[in-house]
Hints:
Layout: E1 30-37, E2 41-47, E3 58-62, H1 66-85, H2 104-107, H3 116-138, H4 144-157, E4 164-169, H5 193-196, H6 200-203, E5 205-208, E6 231-236, H7 248-255, E7 260-264, H8 267-275, E8 283-293, E9 302-306, E10 312-313, H9 315-319, E11 334-340, H10 352-359, E12 364-368, H11 374-389, H12 395-410, E13 418-421
Parallel strand pairs: 1-4, 4-5, 6-7, 6-8, 8-11, 11-12
Antiparallel strand pairs: 1-2, 2-3, 8-9, 9-10, 12-13
Helix pairs in contact: 1-3, 7-11, 11-12
Amino acid sequence: MARELLSQVVQDPGRGFTRHPAPSVRHPGLVLALDAHADDHIRARMYGPAAPPSATEHALRLNVKPAAVTAAAAHLRALWKRELVDFQPVDEGGIPVGGRPHFPYATCPDLTAEPREELRGILDELARQGSHLLYGELLGDGGRGTRRFGEILTGALSREEPLRIRVDSDLFLPWPMLALPEDTANGPGGPGSDTFRRFLGYRHQIEQTGGHHPHFPVPADHARLPPSSPVVSLNHDKSIDPEGVTRAAEVASALATGTVRVERVLCDELLRALRSGGLDEQLMYFWCHGHFRPVADDRTPLFVLRLSDGKDIDVPAVLAGRGPTEPLLPQRPLVFLNAGYAGLPATAEPAHLGGALIEAGAGGVLAPQIEMPQLFAAEYAHAYITRYLGGRETAGEIVHGLARHFADAWSNPLGFAYALQCGMDNRLERVTA
């Protein structure tokens, strides 16, 4: 006699085919891990397909103090500001040269009309100092193991084909602004082209973890279908560029094309959205100022953002609404902090806010490492956002492509000053029929 058997589903890996599949992760071609041990030394490890075969990962102890490397990185950022952004052409008597802007490299994004030898001299110095940070400060202890490690790293970095590189470290160095030694990168091209090829940001896709890692893949219980139209936000300070001399208005228009755009100008609006539990944005763009707020006991200054109301948006404010399980940013958006800052302190850690956003659920954070001229910042933002909203390229591909574009077409190295904290494989997801 037939009878119905009782059954119970104890495991449903497919979730009934009703859940959006988690995005996949591609392993980088090269991973460089730098683990800071107190203020004593750094443990360096290197592995990946681009590294030579080895029974174990390539690893050694670097007898360099992490604080010294951090200070050298701050010096390099300040050098870019002083020697490039703030450069003033003067004659032999120190008198400003007539017929040129006081700050030519900050007031015109296209540098192809600037004097060839002058620009080449600036680029050579930036590359020289970027190379010194990598080979003099970080890998400069002179030991035999260090020399061999440096040779292996240089062999990978000097390849002609672009690599996908992850730097996994809580030492957030401006890696795209670092450079290879002078004799490792030669090639044809226009003014400064040989020098451009020395910068790591020109040669490779680079992401840095800053010691933070996105929750990836998204747990199935939190996975959501992307909205039918991408949800993006414009978080800005309306006092920036009131005369409209930059492309900021075009950036705002691009953000509103084919999307659902949310606009915020107040700190409280942003914090309420973060704590609402329903923030479904896939791209968050910030056009504002950044500041370093002093803290007690001479500790690391705190990096904060300010919108139109001038209130500080800092790490505690971002993380205060984070729950034990639900991410504040469930769609894992790319966050573009197009916020420059002045007077980088030697002990400053500009990546801390980006790390807080990643802890809150962001898939990646893109931000400049120096006080960026407004004209270039808006040009970069317009190019980046239009390409990212296309949904065809990853965040890392666009950062690398724009670094090369502005260097090759405009002889401008400022694209190397934008650094990606995680998110190299982030791409805008769209619902397809």
